Amino acid sequence: GPVVVWFRNDLRVKDNLALSKAVDSDAPVIALFILDETARAPRKLGGARRWWLHHSLVALEASLAALNIPLILKSGESEKLVRAVVDESKADSVFWNRRYDPPGIAIDTELKAALKDDGIHVESFDGQLLHEPSKTTTGSGGHYKVYTPFWRALDAGTPPRDPIGAPRKVTNNAKDLSSDKLDDWKLLPTKPDWSGGIADSWTPGEAGAWKCLDDFIAGPFDAYAEGRDLPDRAGTSRMSPHLAFGEITPYQIWAETSRRPKEVASEDRTTYRKEIVWREFSYHLLFHKPDLAEANYNAAFDAMPWRQDKDALRAWQRGMTGYPIVDAGMRQLWQTGWMHNRVRMIVASFLTKHLLIDWRIGEDWFWDTLVDADPASNAAQWQWVAGSGADASPYFRIFNPMLQGSKFDQKGDYVRRFVPELAKLSDKYIQTPWEAPTEVLSRAGITLGKDYPRPIVDHQKARQRALDAYKKLKEAA
Ligand code: FAD
C-alpha cells in the first residue's frame, strides 16, 4: 500500500529522510500537511510565520508535483487526520521527520504507538537538529545548563552525518485524495495587509533558502566573526526562518560551510558553527524544561516585581521609545519580520530592565512578529537576556542603549534606515537626539516630542529602578 509522509517543520525535498525513504519503498507516496490549531497542538503560529507558511507550502507543492507526489492539506486535530488519510488511501506506512517542541513530541509519541497497534508501519527520522536533545548528556548523565561545555562536548563528538539529495521521481501514482485549498486557510493578512516589507525581504521555500545560504557563503561568511555583531550591514546568514520551517537542514548548512569556500578563516567558520549550536542548545533546554516559554528557568525570578505599563509596552512595540537603537530594532522587526541578533538583545534588555516588563510579554510579541519565531530559541534567549534563564546574562548587567548604539551602529546607518525621521541628524547625536542643541535638531528638521519622541524613561533612573527590583528579588530568595 501507499506511504504517507507527514510534513511538519520540514518543508523541503532535499535531505528529507522521511520523504526519500518513502520513495525508496517503490510504493505510491502521499505527502500530507496538517494545520492543527486545536488545544493539544504545538503553539499556534504568529502572523508573520503564517504568512511564511503559506508561501512555503506553495513552493513545496510545486517541488513535490515535479516528483509526482501530491500534497494533501488538512486542518484540524492531527491524530484524527493522519488516521483519516491512512484509511482513505489504504496506506500501510506513515513516515515523518522528528520535531522537538514538547506538544509535538507528545502527539507524535502517542500517535506512533496507536498506529503501530493497528498494524501500520511508522518510522521517524532526523533533520531538524544535529543532535537529539535527549541524548546529549553531561559526564554525570544530567543535562547541560551551560553553553560552553555543551559546545565542547558536541565539538569533540561524532561529526554530523552527510546530507542527502532529493529523491527520484515516483512512478507509482497515488489515487486522488480529498484536500483543503490553501487559500481557504487564510494564512495571509488582508485588512490591513502588513506583509509588503516582509515580502520584499524574503523568499520563502527551499530554493529561497539555498539562495540565501549561497549569498552568505559567497559574501559575509569570510568576515562573520566580526561582521555578525554589526546591524548596519548584512553580516549574518539570515538562515533562521528557513531553518524554522525546515526548508534547509542544519546538516546541509554544516556540510556547505565546510566545503565552501576553502579560504574562509577557521575563526569565521567556528564562530558560525557555534551559533548553529546555540540553536541546538536551546532545544536541549526546551527538552528538559518543556515550559521554557512560560515559566522562569530560575524560579527565584517568580518574585520579580514586573510592572504593568500598557503605554510603555505599546511604545516599545511600535518603536517609539525615544531611544533610536531600540526603535530601529522594533521597526525592523515590524517591517521585515526579522531583527538583527545584537539589536534583539538590546530591545529585550530595554523591555525587561528599563521598562521592567515581564520577558514573557516580549517573547509573545516576538512570537507574533518574527518570521523565525522558534519555540526553543525565542524562549531561551528571552530568559537569557532577562536573567532568569540557564547560563543567563546576570540581571545587573543592564545594556546602555546609547553605548550599544554608538559601538555597534557607529555611523548610525542602521538607525537612519529604520527611523527615517532622524535621517538628517549628525553622527554625533544619532543615538542621543535629546542631547542635541535645538539648532542642530532644527537643521535636521526635527522637533522632539513631535517628529520623534523624547525618551519614555530616563536611562539612569530606569537603571536604578531595575537594580532595586533585583535587589529585592535577591533578598527574598
Ligand atoms: P546567524 O548569525 O547567521 O546565525 C546562524 C544561525 O544560528 C541562525 O539562523 C540561528 O539558527 C542560529 N543562531 C544564531 N544565534 C542564535 C542564538 N542566540 N540562539 C539560538 N540560535 C541562534 N532565533 C531564532 O531562530 N528564533 C527566535 O525566535 C529567536 N528569538 C530571539 C529572541 C531574543 C530576545 C534574542 C536575543 C535572540 C533570538 N534568536 C532567535 C537568536 C538570534 O537572534 C537569531 O537566530 C539570529 O538573529 C538569526 O539571524 P541569522 O540567521 O542571520 O543568524
UniProtKB/TrEMBL annotation:
UniProt cross-references to Pfam families, sorted A to Z: DNA_photolyase, FAD_binding_7
Cofactor(s) recorded in Swiss-Prot or TrEMBL: (6R)-5,10-methylene-5,6,7,8-tetrahydrofolate; FAD
One MF term in the entry's GO annotations: deoxyribodipyrimidine photo-lyase activity
Binding, FAD: Y224, T236, S237, R238, M239, S240, Y272, D372, A373, D374
Key words of the record: Chromophore, FAD, Flavoprotein, Lyase
Reactions listed under catalytic activity: cyclobutadipyrimidine (in DNA) = 2 pyrimidine residues (in DNA)
One BP annotation, GO: photoreactive repair
The species this protein was found in: Georhizobium profundi
Domain Photolyase/cryptochrome alpha/beta: 1-130
Name of the protein: Deoxyribodipyrimidine photo-lyase
Upper lineage: Bacteria, Pseudomonadati, Pseudomonadota, Alphaproteobacteria, Hyphomicrobiales
Co-factor note (free text): Binds 1 FAD per subunit.
PANTHER family: CRYPTOCHROME, CRYPTOCHROME CIRCADIAN CLOCK 5 ISOFORM X1
Similarity comment text for this entry: Belongs to the DNA photolyase family.
Site residues, Electron transfer via tryptophanyl radical: W306, W359, W382
Top-level enzyme category: lyase
Matching PROSITE patterns: DNA_PHOTOLYASES_1_1, DNA_PHOTOLYASES_1_2, PHR_CRY_ALPHA_BETA
Documented EC number(s): 4.1.99.3
